[in-house]
Amino acid sequence: MHPLIEVPALDRLLRQQTPLVLLDVRWHLGGPPGIESYRRGHLPGAVFVDLGRDVAGPPGAGGRHPLPAAGDFEAAMRRAGVSAGGLVVVYDDADSTAAARLWWALRYFGHDRVRVLDGGYKAWTEAGHPVTTADPEVKPGDFIADPGRLPVLDADGAAALAGAGVLLDARSAERFRGEREPVDPVAGHIPGARNAPTSGNVGVDGRFLPPGLLRERFAKLGATDALDVGAYCGSGVTAAHEILALNLAGIPAALYVGSWSQWVTDPSRPVATGD
GO terms for molecular function, please (predicted)? Predict the structure, then answer.
């Protein structure tokens, strides 16, 4: 299944009352809780999913947004109405950063029929489609979490890939170079990683670039389908956006879920700064 869905296609499905589960996963790093945005207005029928509570485990040695336990993720998705084999569409504010993490998590835990609304809530409203503040009636789903369906990296695997393959750092250039670190206690990057900010995956409207342009972008960084490729960020959220962009470009890639926030928990791990 293609990982993206455009606003007109989703509108048609909803008008035709096609069975699907619509998940709102709006989230803001260091900002107000996404539930506040949801309560001010959301797509009709959308169920709110909390990224920190439902799509990640408790912060700690595994990083700020480690993988949730399979049972916890299963329960959260069942509460949201997700069932085995059913179509799921996920969205966030605009650029798919949070939506990509939920897309990735559903795929990792064995749900293949999931798509991201390209352009998110912003694209939906700019097209003139309605929103609501009403809470939907949710029929609990029967989703069964089957972990391990997508490749992941641990710290050792990320370090090895930075030397033997291509490890992309999805954070901003300033954070990669160690000039600014607003969240984690140590600034810099994994030695050998290459900087590929996720802002370069989308246009000014928040929609993903065409596959051909994404392939060109990643090829300039050395990432092609002929090499082993992985991605990390601060805590494994924006790196999932990188994985989605790589998927669109036809490049398989593994996610280092713990990312920089997990890397720096061990002071013996090396840290690089600069370009």
Answer: thiosulfate-cyanide sulfurtransferase activity
Q: Walk me through the domains of the chain, giving residue ranges and CATH numbers.
A: 4-127 (3.40.250.10), 152-264 (3.40.250.10)
For the chain, the average pLDDT equals 97
To the query of whether residue 233 is one of the catalytic residues in this protein, the response is: yes
Give 33: exposed, middle or buried? Use CB within 10 Å, 0-12, 13-18, 19+.
Answer: middle
Spell out the residues 6+ positions from residue 36 whose beta carbon is closer than 8 angstroms to its own. Answer: none
- Listed as ranges, residues in the chain with pLDDT below 70 are none
Helical residues (DSSP H) of the chain, grouped into ranges? 7-15, 34-40, 51-54, 70-79, 97-108, 120-126, 155-164, 173-177, 211-220, 238-248, 259-263
User: pLDDT of 162-214, one tens digit each?
Assistant: 999 999 999 999 999 999 999 999 999 999 999 999 999 999 999 999 999 99
Tens digit of each residue's pLDDT (9 = 90 or more) over 159-173: 999 999 999 999 999
**What per-residue confidence (pLDDT) applies to 100?**
98
- Listed residue (70, 49, 89) closest to 143, CA to CA: 70
Phi, then psi, of 194 in degrees rounded to 5:
-120, 135
User: Distance of CA 80 to CAs 85, 130, 142, Å?
Assistant: 15, 21, 10
Identify the pLDDT of residue 216. Answer: 98
Annotated catalytic residue within 20, 47, 233, 245: 233
Residues 6+ apart with CB under 8 A from 73: 54, 55, 105, 109, 145
DSSP annotation of 66: P
Apex 247 CA angle, 243 and 248, nearest 5: 120
Cβ count near 164 (within 10 Å):
11
